[in-house]
Specification:
Blueprint: H1 18-49, H2 53-58, H3 71-77, H4 81-111, H5 119-131, H6 136-146, H7 163-175, H8 178-186, H9 191-202, H10 204-220, H11 223-228, H12 237-249, H13 261-268, H14 278-309
């Protein structure tokens, strides 16, 4: 049987009125302006970090560095404690988020069982700290009693459980088909196996989203170091950068603690117009703080939106 050729059918385009085109063009214009207003502050910080301090103080810089230099970054990275602080912060951003997400999802899995004895009482006590928080003094006394002062565990243990995150994870677990767990129980699987082979794989999006939030929180936190840690070997990157800014503002740009003599000679040999000012040091520190996060986010992006929507609304 010979196939009959089908004639080419031209798709009828929907005619758009002039008002619709004007409205779409206006929306595009607004979105472009909004995007530029959101991106430009980051671009301004970047170009300021690559500009000499004296030139930046002479007048505003808008789009590109007028006097390009790398001395600002050399000044920040020559600080001897920066490498140790980077190791401590990286270790904290690995141990802290993993422990936090694991403890939170364990609690969410247990509290998703309505037959759990004392379930409502546990939820009540978990919820109380959200509304009644401790003061700085009371929290400090607790850390002293627990022996967490000048201890690496002070970075990870206090933030190991979050009630709000647990509620969202619990809601997500409750939305999973209960038949999956029932069939696994019939096959002889216990709760540890159900948790490891059913719950965790199905919770990957929401776990990745909260893992990213925890990584960012641990990376940007310097308050814990400021209050509970005086041992310089346990200083975090954010706290060291905070010290650099304070020293720059106090005009003590050379007399750093334990700064090598080679670094001192290097700074002393700078010309006056290339010595970093407090303003460009702030911009450089901002870039150093945010740059690593830009590399972490793409690995979590595909889980981010789905993880935040899943479990946020109970059906």
């Amino acid at each position: 049987m010979k196939a009959v050729p089908v004639p080419f059918l031209r798709k009828n385009k929907i005619k758009r009125t002039t008002s619709e085109r004007v409205f779409d063009a206006f929306n595009v214009f607004i979105m472009i302006v909004w995007s530029l207003s959101a991106i430009y502050p980051f671009w301004y910080i970047l170009i300021m970090s690559f500009n000499t301090g004296a030139d930046a103080a002479a007048g505003p810089i808008w789009f590109f560095p007028r006097m390009f230099t790398l001395e600002n970054y050399a000044f920040v990275f020559q600080y001897d404690r920066l490498q140790t602080a980077f190791v401590v912060t990286t270790l904290r951003c690995i141990v802290g988020p993993i422990l936090s997400v694991f403890v939170t999802v364990l609690a969410a899995f247990a509290l998703s069982k309505r037959f759990l004895p004392g379930r409502k009482t546990l939820l009540f006590f978990f919820m109380m700290p959200m509304f009644i928080g401790g003061t700085i003094i009371s929290n400090y006394v607790v850390m002293v009693k627990l022996g967490l002062l000048n201890n690496f565990l002070v970075y990870v243990l206090p933030a190991a459980f979050g009630f709000f995150s647990m509620i969202i994870m619990r809601t997500h677990i409750e939305e999973l088909p209960i038949e999956l767990q029932e069939s696994a129980t019939i096959d002889g699987a216990g709760y540890p196996r159900i948790f490891a082979q059913i719950i965790l794989p199905l919770c990957k999006p929401i776990l990745a989203a909260f893992l990213f939030f925890s990584v960012v929180g641990n990376w940007l936190d310097y308050y814990t170091n400021l209050i509970y840690v005086t041992d310089r070997s346990l200083s975090t990157l954010q706290f060291v950068l905070y010290e650099i800014i304070n020293r720059a503002e106090a005009s003590t740009l050379i007399d750093f603690t334990k700064t090598s003599s080679a670094s001192q000679r290097r700074i002393m040999s700078m010309a006056n117009n290339t010595v970093p000012t407090p303003e460009v040091i702030k911009m450089t520190v901002m870039v150093v703080v945010t740059f690593p996060i830009l590399f972490v986010y793409p690995f979590f992006q595909k889980y981010f939106v789905k993880g935040m929507l899943t479990g946020a609304v109970k059906a």
